[in-house]
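Inputs:
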Amino acid sequence: MTNDTVALDDSVHLTESELLELEAVLTGGIHLKKTAESAKETVIRVENLSAYFGHKQVLQNLQLEIKDQEITALIGPSGCGKTTFLRTLNRMSHTVPGFRHEGVVSVLGRDVSEVRDVESFRRAVGMLFQRPNPFPMSIIDNLTLALKLFGVSKKERIEIAKDKLNEVGLYEDLKDRLHQSPFALSGGQQQRLCLARALAVQPKVLLLDEPASALDPKSTKLLEDLFVRLAEHMTIVIVTHNLAQAKRIAKRTAFMEAGEIVEFELTDKLFYHPQDPRTRVYVEEQIG
Amino acid sequence: MLNARIRSRIFQVAAGIAAVSPLLVLLFVAGVLVMDAWPAFKFQGFSFFTGITWNMGNMYASNPIVHNGVEGAPGATFGILPFIVGTIGSSLIAMMIAVPISLLSAFALVYKIPPRYARWISSAVELLAGIPSVVFGLWGMVVLAPIVANQIGPWLTHFGKVLPFLAGPVGSGFGLLTSGIVLAVMVIPIITATSRDLIAQVPKLPIEGAQALGMTTFESIRHITFPMVRRGVIGAIILGWGRALGETMAVLMVSGNATNYLPTNLYSPISTMASTVAALLDGALTDFSKLSIHALALIAVTLLVITMITNLLARLLVQLGRRDVGTEA
């Protein structure tokens, strides 16, 4: 880990002027970053992806490359297929009867249509859902259940659980109530618990399906900060209706409409210089 | 036209009456039964529950014997242990068969079978629940009993060395095992339909969360769905068990109607409490001393008490289960 990242980790304690300074340093480093960029690996590669529920086509000919250590946002009107696309990446769409897809979807070098061991594949591709979905068991068990089923020793899994709670900033609040029900927690805490749960199995990719849509602004901010930090060592794909959120955290954004990717660009470019008129209309309407 | 206040008042009173009526009916039935049964208990004492000889005596005699201040027909003695054993035994066998099948089919109907097939199977299950018990009884007599006597029974006797209760002789096919199987078939739709509805109500989100974590369907059912429906499923099982304990006609037709005899193996003829009441009522009515009727009423009270005890036990289990949330470390 470089010194830069350490500084970012502690950035919570920085004053505003210090932050501005830091930003200046970072923009100065853009030159350096550029070279690092081309070295970034493509983690998700999508070619000619079309998908169907029964006879209804929901995705049309998607082309997309998603790189490591980046947050990629998927935006677009409801029903445009962004959630279906996201759920295709970890084969969750495939659990819906009647779903099928054509084309290549390669995640972490594995073609999803050829994944036979779905369980170990899904361990590498974590997911966070629209609403918090804690399991009906104690907080600690929420975190350790999957590890237990994968054969991690008790001592180790409890260590991992505490570590992950710490990572999402819940450990201090919850350390005395690890054996209580998670349903008494606030929505934001529950969602962070679910994030910790997803992280506990050490995924390399994280899929976020409107993870903050049910949360208040403060919890949303906390989660967004977490995502940014996590993206330093993993690939994140986020579906969001909140364009400001995409702008805040995503390096690249794909705008989808009617099952197609209309435009896929660096986030700033997509929002401020959209190439496609459809993108322009959507972005302008949403921002008002 | 009534004004709103009065209508609301009428509704409140009607709702109140409706709400307490189940309790009142239960108290009334229990009260009448206990009063009716009391002379038999006075006559026989606690040996009513532990004795194995049931004899209504010479009901046409005119010289009643008096025991503990109660008149009875000469030779009358009432012991219902065989009926108690038959009732509990056959219903337990039924539950051993029905519970796993019902739960598996309920989970399969919700999670595994494509909806358009599941709909058909579900309506078949509900249809099965509506078939009159005499039809099941007839099926048990004509179809099942010979199969038990010639195929299932002889095959099970191979395990007799491990479990002596399974050893032969197999007999006619009318008895404990056949009763248990018939009861199981009758109870399966009840448990299946109730648990299926419960399972279908479990929110999808936590299950998807489990799948996204890389858990198998079985693991997510075992750890996520099942704990959420456990209480309700136990309730469904009790409902089924209650039906099995009280079932009369179907058992009467396949049980072999044994009296004064405790089952020695899985194939022994039995009688249950409910079927005994039905079978002996006609004869008991001719008892000049009326004691036989009182004895049948006491059987009914015993059945009521046993049903209540199983209910309470099951509730207790649920309570204990709720405390065990299953946390580690």
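Chain A has two domains: 1-39, 69-90+117-287. Flag for discussion at group meeting.
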